[in-house]
């Protein structure tokens, strides 16, 4: 039994996607840590409702112009780090996937970054362009890793098999030849990303996200089977990981008839035992899937930095 578990664990750790994910996360870890520290400083010291802001009366003795500029600086640092972490993950995953198969990693890395940005572009009715922040921030990190890994694999499948030789000098002519050899995979990736971007913009334009979320909420409300509630929670969590707003993001935990019925029962009987709707999808999601915050994330990253010691690839 133990031997079988060890073999499966080794096989899991040796999988190409897992190796790429571990390397990518190791690279973007400092950016995530810096961004979260910036958010913590902003919330605690420079926000009007911050704890130390009010305890130290920072607004009384710090000039307003200095306070405002400090707020903007911390917000800017947060925006270019954790709020764009998925883009960096796509770049790193594409690059390390190419390295894994010993092919040039510069063009795949840039292509992964551009692909991630292209998937995040949204068009406004007045012919403007904006970016979907949900698909660029740390919440959709899994989506960025998958995009980068797929980009690297496409370069592996369609690119010219020019293997890198350790210690071989790279000149401008070599780079130009390598880029020319990568024309086909670049075109395939860009056309595929453009098609997905077109579909995502159509879905956003016709508010299909909201309609699908309403359907999922109706399936997971009332006295529905527990397995269906659990399925909706898992689906919502997966959508969140991919940068797509899930069903429970449009509804608060106490914003439904069933939730209010549970609340009224608990207030009337002074206990939650025997509520009419014991398993609500929104309650399960908010209690077990959607938890944590900036403080918890900072504590987790600091704990990883202190106690994690790995010498594997």
What do these coordinates show?
The chain has 313 residues and is mainly alpha-helical. The protein has 15 helices and two strands. The chain has helices spanning 2-13, 16-46, 51-55, 58-61, 64-80, 85-100, 106-120, 141-158, 172-181, 183-205, 208-219, 226-241, 257-269, 281-289, 294-307, and strands at residues 121-123, 129-131. A two-stranded antiparallel sheet has the order 1-2. Helix 2 runs antiparallel to helix 6 (85-100), helix 6 (85-100) runs antiparallel to helix 7 and helix 6 (85-100) packs parallel to helix 8 (141-158).
Which labels suit this protein?
313 residues, mainly alpha, 15 helices, 2 strands, globular
Brief description of this entry?
With 313 residues, this protein is mainly α.
How many distinct beta strands?
2
Proportion of residues in helical segments: 55-70%
Give the distance, in angstroms, between the N- and C-terminal Cα atoms: 26 Å
Which class of secondary structure composition applies to the elements? mainly alpha
Report on the biggest sheet: 2 strands, antiparallel
Biggest sheet, spatial arrangement of strands? 1-2
Mean pLDDT: 77
Our count of helices gives 15
- What's the overall geometry? globular
- Radius of gyration using CA atoms only: 24 Å
Question: What is the beta-strand fraction?
Answer: under 5%
Order of helices and strands: HHHHHHHEEHHHHHHHH
Low-confidence stretches: none
